[in-house]
């Protein structure tokens, strides 16, 4: 039963959680120092589709999987990947059938929610968040599902991000980080870099401001695109907070949205970027991520924060670009933002079969097939090492994103309250950077509501 819906999406999800758990983590997870991958991301994109009945024929079990579509047209739909995966698994596991339904990112979360509400949860699901289902006791833990080899292969911080109350329920599958993209020609024409210069390395926000002023003087329509619209305001906001030494949570994983570094970040954007007319004609609060990407591929945007999806989009339009970490407030090293997608298995009585399917999914060849198809980063040690060693295709361009993974920080997706907090940010953060905006007041309001929804 294959259904496919056209879609294209960024990936969105990002988390930072505290390490712990009663299992022997250090012995089971690859040392971050040894792997060079101290990832702070967690993600997966797999989904199990509702198991009503489940037994067919001679006690044959049917696993129902729901997955998100990472393609942006019918030709590169994720349906083909899941179909091949299911066929390979069925061949190796007689007696277990796999039915996959693939939906666009704009509808897959709602589809799974409807199935769960109707008592027909999928066996495995690849969606944007897992914590609500984990908190409701609807998911198997990683320990209940996976072989020791599979569980040990997750990059440690990603696995940590999949935990609720020290138990891992979210299984990271693919990940991504964000970097600052810049149009080489526009910066060269504006005198920011030499005509044949490569390797621009801005270190501070002052460097960024100076470059944006030169781009404005050269009549670049949007010197720096600042997408704080609803599509992904929570991501753009987090990047600037991290660059200021802040973030959505503190070291104890409590919400710290109204911290001084966070206020400082938004005041810089209000006064130095928006206030000086360096962010283009569209108000940041009304500018979505894809619209900013479109402007960059048209040669109208000098700089913006982006993810690997922009690589192909810009190259297809002949844009020559460079990528660097987002400069920080004072030039000190700060973590980049990472994102991840999640796989989870619902308690439908098919624990053993679901576990076998997930072990199969996380085999290195299957992880590599998916990440290479969509220019994503892996969430496993074996996948990370393979990506580091790769030299063909888009591998060289992905290396800067891969390098940023070790210190990346994710959204606090392990918190059941995060979905509501994220929505609050999407609705209100844009107004903080407008002339007369009040970052401290707005962040305090968001933080107060966040803490109230997250009793500890």
Automatic annotation (TrEMBL):
InterPro entries (alphabetical): Bact_solute-bd_prot1, SBP
Pfam families: SBP_bac_8
Record protein name field: ABC transporter substrate-binding protein
């Amino acid at each position: 039963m294959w259904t496919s819906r056209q879609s294209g999406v960024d990936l969105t999800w990002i988390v930072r959680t505290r390490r712990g758990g009663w299992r022997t983590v250090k012995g089971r997870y690859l040392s971050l120092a040894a792997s060079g991958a101290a990832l702070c991301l967690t993600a997966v994109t797999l989904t199990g589709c509702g198991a009503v009945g489940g037994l067919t024929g001679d006690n044959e079990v049917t696993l129902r999987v729901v997955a998100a579509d990472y393609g942006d047209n019918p030709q590169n739909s994720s349906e083909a990947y899941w179909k091949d995966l299911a066929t390979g698994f069925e061949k190796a596991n007689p007696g277990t059938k796999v039915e996959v339904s693939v939906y666009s990112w704009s509808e897959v979360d709602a589809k799974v929610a409807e199935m769960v509400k109707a008592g027909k949860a999928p066996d495995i699901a690849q969606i944007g968040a897992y914590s609500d289902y984990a908190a409701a006791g609807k998911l198997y833990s990683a320990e209940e599902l996976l072989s020791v080899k599979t569980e040990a292969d997750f990059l440690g911080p990603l696995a940590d991000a999949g935990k609720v109350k020290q138990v891992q329920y979210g299984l990271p599958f693919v990940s991504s980080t964000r970097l600052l993209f810049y149009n080489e020609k526009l910066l060269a024409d504006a005198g920011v870099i030499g005509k044949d210069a490569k390797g621009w390395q801005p270190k501070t926000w002052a460097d960024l401001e100076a470059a944006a002023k030169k781009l404005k003087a050269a009549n670049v329509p949007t010197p720096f695109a600042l997408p704080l619209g609803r599509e992904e305001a929570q991501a753009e906001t987090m990047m600037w907070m991290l660059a200021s030494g802040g973030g959505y949570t503190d070291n104890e994983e409590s919400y710290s949205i109204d911290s001084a570094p966070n206020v400082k970040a938004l005041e810089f954007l209000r006064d130095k970027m928006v206030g000086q007319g360096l962010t283009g004609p569209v108000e940041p609060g009304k500018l979505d991520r894809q619209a900013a990407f479109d402007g960059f591929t048209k040669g109208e945007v000098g700089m913006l924060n982006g993810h690997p999806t922009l690589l192909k989009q810009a190259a297809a339009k002949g844009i020559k670009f460079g990528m660097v970490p987002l400069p920080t407030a004072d030039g000190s090293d700060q973590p980049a933002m990472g994102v991840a997608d999640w796989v989870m298995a619902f308690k439908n009585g098919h624990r053993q079969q679901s576990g076998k399917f997930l072990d199969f999914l996380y085999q290195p060849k299957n992880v590599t097939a998916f990440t290479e198809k969509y220019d994503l980063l892996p969430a496993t040690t074996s996948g990370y090492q393979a990506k580091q060693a790769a030299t063909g295709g888009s591998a060289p361009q992905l290396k800067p994103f891969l390098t940023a993974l070790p210190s990346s920080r994710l959204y606090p997706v392990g918190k059941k309250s995060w979905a509501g907090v994220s929505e609050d940010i999407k609705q209100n953060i844009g107004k903080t950077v407008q002339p007369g905006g009040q970052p401290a007041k707005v962040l305090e309001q968001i933080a107060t509501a966040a803490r109230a929804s997250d009793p500890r």
